[in-house]
Amino acid sequence: MRNPADPLPGRGSSANIKNRCETQEIVFDVTDDEEDRPSLKTRFFKDSSQSIVNSNNSPDVGFDFSVNPYRGCEHGCAYCFARPTHEFLGMSAGLDFESKIFVKEDAPSLLRKKLMSKSWKPAVIAMSGVTDCYQPAERKFRLTRGCLEVLAEFRNPVAMITKNALITRDIDLFKELASFNAVLISISLTSLDSDLCGILEPRTSRPAARLKAIEELSKAGIPVNALLAPMIPGLNDHEMPKILKAAANAGARHAGFVPLRLPLAVAPLFTQWLEQHKPERKEKVLNHIKDMRGGLLNNAEFGERMRGQGPFAENLRQMFKVYCTKEGFNEHDVILSTEHFRVPAQTGDQFEFF
Question: Taking each helix axis from N to C terminus, what angle separates 282-292 and 266-277, rounded to the nearest 10 degrees?
């Protein structure tokens, strides 16, 4: 019988953590029958949201609008900042987040309705602003593909972020959008160590597959950004030069990085992950995180949360700057265009563009 404190193969968390929004919680004893415990298989639920485009007013996030076809993420990244969003659904940021996925089946039609509305002013829409839009569920539901078809039809610019090589499936749509300077893809690279990736980001594509995705996208003429996120001090920060070199060799011409942040329930979950998988590094990693976060495991202050503070954070920034220069990254900005945006007007069963 499995002890809930033991790591779960293929999962970033091994159990559910108390929901801060709930006054009660269910605690399972090691003697409880397995059938009484939360299912370890991924389950999917219909999300009946009536809107799909979210607005953002955070000054340190580089987009104003985002689309997330899924709530929860089967990738199961141990550090995922989006985990606490499941608490608003009455669930846990732990195992629930990565095993109970809510599917917005109407996402493409809701997106079309939004872009057709008179209130919509053409703007860049980010996909994967919260959960990864190319997580394993996308192979079955194809909602990201459906949303991209709408964006390409309207020629509305989109910025994609993913850890999954599945993104190459949609190169045809990206090429169409790129012809109007309307797409930028960020491939998140956390480590080149496949074994570390397997326990830290268990259901993501492995590093070699992500680098191959960068190569395929770049060869297709699609601008690709290598996003080193998160950089975890004492765990993967030493890989920064090698990751940047590998991304440059694969064809990426832009790069960025984000230091680890651990909001709310993510802090105890990641601490538990360290205890289970990297106990010898636990104190070093946590102390370095505190050095970057004003003595805490997280600092949610705008302007600081995406950068960190103190000598360690500054060393990361300087190292990133030096190696970006060495590898030829960020020599020019990518500014996506809205000038080709068009609205299809429906006439009978046909669409007419103007």
Answer: 150
Reported residue count of the chain is 354
For tokens 């990254």, what's the residue? 329
List the one residue out of 36, 21, 33, 39 whose CA is nearest residue 96. 39
pLDDT digits (tens, 9 = 90+) for 304-340: 777 888 999 999 999 999 999 999 999 999 999 999 9
Report phi then psi at 257, rounded to 5.
-145, 155
**Ramachandran angles phi, psi of 75, nearest 5°:** -55, -35
Closest CA to 158 of 244, 228, 83, 222: 222
Start-to-end CA span in the chain (Å): 64
Tell me the whole-structure pTM to 2 decimals: 0.90
Segment 274-289, tens digit of pLDDT: 999 999 999 999 999 9
The CA-based angle 55-60-62, given to 5 degrees, is: 60
> How would you classify the pairing of strands 224-231 and 183-188?
parallel
- Helix runs in the chain, H state only: 95-99, 107-116, 138-141, 143-154, 171-178, 194-200, 207-219, 240-250, 266-277, 282-292, 310-327
Is residue 151 within 8 Å of 161, Cβ to Cβ?
Answer: no
